[in-house]
Amino acid sequence: MVVLNKIYTRTGDKGDTALGNGNRVAKYDPRVNAYGTVDELNATVGMARLHAEGDVDAMLSAIQNDLFDLGADLCRPDMDKDAEAEYPPLRMADSQVERLETEIDALNANLDPLRSFILPGGSELAAYLHLCRTVARRAERLAVELATAEPTNPAAVKYLNRLSDWFFVAARVANNNGKDDVLWVPGANR
């Protein structure tokens, strides 16, 4: 159970922070950059939800919860010691990736194939979902960078990769099922 009765601790005043296993690292550590960007993404999803409703809002709600799971996973190094831990660390599961894939397929079912790249925008919801997509891609790049330096849960990286695709397709749905997508016109302003 999480209990937060005091918000400031002063323990990070010298530029370091505690990971999920208690180890202290610099606040610019690759692991902190990865889960910090996941937190930023979650806040961006919250902004998108201000414009969402129905099934899309429900899916975004589930994604926000997943992003907390993902942050918990990324903040806990030493995957090889998971079995020894007093409390098993929360790790992303392939089932979360599979749920995104199922949702992408359902959202994409009524969209015409793209014949051009699209510009981020259109409706307010679509614009926010495109912002979510770009932050998700940054979080993915940081998670991949982390995974090259130390063991990282492969499902965490897969989830971020699939999530940016989810945001792209959901943005098209938010643009009147793609009918209001803003198409890129190569060289239009030469």
Structural summary, described in words:
This protein is mainly alpha-helical and 190 residues long. It has a domain of 122 residues: Hypothetical Protein Ta1238, Chain: A (Up-down Bundle). The protein is built from five helices and four strands. The protein has a two-stranded antiparallel ribbon. Strands 3-4 form a two-stranded antiparallel ribbon. A hairpin with a 5-residue loop joins β1 and β2. The longest helix has 26 residues. The chain is elongated, with a radius of gyration of 18 Å. The mean pLDDT is 93.
Structural class: mainly alpha
CATH class of the domain at 22-78 and 116-180: Mainly Alpha
Largest sheet: 2 strands, antiparallel
Oligomeric status of the shown chains?
single chain
Using only C-alpha atoms, the radius of gyration works out to: 18 Å
Helix segment count? Answer: 5
Report, as a whole number of angstroms, the end-to-end distance: 59 Å
Helicity, as a percent range:
40-55%
Strand order of the largest sheet: 1-2
Strand content: 5-15%
- Poorly predicted runs: none
Mean pLDDT: 93
CATH superfamily of the domain at 22-78 and 116-180: Cobalamin adenosyltransferase-like
CATH architecture grouping of the domain at 22-78 and 116-180: Up-down Bundle
The secondary-structure element order is EEHHHEHHE
Note the overall shape: elongated
EC number: 2.5.1.17
Keywords: ATP-binding, Cobalamin biosynthesis, Cytoplasm, Nucleotide-binding, Transferase
InterPro entries: CblAdoTrfase-like, CblAdoTrfase-like_sf, PduO-typ
Enzyme class: transferase
